[in-house]
Amino acid sequence: MQYDNFINGKWVPGEYQANVNPSETTDVIGYYAQATSSDTDRAIQAACNAKHEWGETLAQNRSEVLTHIGEEILKQKNQLGKCIAREEGKLVTEGVGEAERAGRTFLYYAHQLQQATGEMFLSSRERTSIHTVRKPVGTVGIITPWNFPLAIPAWKIAPALAFGNTVVFKPATLVPASAWNLAKIISETNLPHGAFNLVMGSGRAVGDRISKSKSIDAVSFTGSGETGKQIIQDCINIGNKKVQTEMGGKNSLVILDDADIPTAVEAVIDGAYYSAGQRCTATSRVIVTKGIIEEVKTCLVNRTAELTVGHALDSTADLGPLASENQLSNVLEYVKIGVNEGAEILSGGAAFDASTPGFFMQPTLFTGGRSDMRINQEEIFGPVACLIEVDGIDEAIETANDTDYGLCAGIISESPQSVNKFLREVDAGMLHVNRSTALTELNVPFGGTKSSTFGPHEQGAAAREFYTTSSTVYTTTTS
Question: What pTM, to 2 d.p., does this model score?
């Protein structure tokens, strides 16, 4: 079956590309239209034409649109979750959870429209009042990755529409089905034609046109650091166009001598291996003090041996496949790099031969790691973690900070003093205590420091900072 792009309120055909199931490569999910540069330009123009009408739409009416979208996603969460599993490789239970989060994200921003957005200030002058007002940015380009094909588009599109912006949405080429399903739900609301546009296609034909267009007022991007830096430069070159990028992480979990070992082990398993490690918040650096490292090694080896790799629709599997053949090849190459750098494989380290043709990999654990190794500095984006031994809290913090990334970090400890020191001194946007680094919630800010994030953070009330501009209004009465 063929699936079209959605431009200016209409479904637009194009040349079609097959969407293949990474759990079972003989399963073709569908054929999805690839937008051209001209298609993208038409989508941008349509969004520009619609921005005044949608920006002037009453907040109550915008809230009703978002409520409809959110409720419809929740109604369809089982089908949407299965679609995520088929095209991205996430386990179906995780896919359903992602769909539910996407639906609740739209409902959250529908509710946000009922909250106060301006502020009042006292003036130093007589008969003068001061207040601030929020206005839409205008037309927003949204570029999303393949690892969360419904949740990340939702947490960008929902606030963009809520605050009165129009949208040109480019999903990752690996996961067009989830994007198309979301677009179908959005298309069935009473949005003005052009207020929302879906352009599936390559970075060259679609992404570049969005980032370099003078008609796009802001760009929100999640993906690789290399692409994100290019988008930032494009936006600056255009004339300091507003830009927000999330470019991954190299996240550490510190485990101290006083840690509860079962809690620590489960935090590593969740952070490093669930979703096949394909989360920007995944744990890949496990920093352990020397007093317990041997116990942690033994427990992790035993626990990873219990994990089952299998088809994303298999209810008994703990890990599905990697999202593509290229992704599997990249991760296996990093395993070779780790061995060449002197790290030792404790478990896994190879592709997994499942009952169906797909891109499966064993959960992999290294030991003997040093912080300067490539496997501990570069984002691998697969089910790979490395143990790094340290003497105590000071060296643990130094090691956790020894990376260009600063998305998230965690600590497992029963010591209030150690935890507080960690929270004060670790340079990361999201910090976790006695839990997995991969767990986040939709109503609080999401974002990092250093090379992980550029621009305002996402989600929760923080999204307002990116999707609106603020004006300060001085009013003086004449009598």
Answer: 0.96
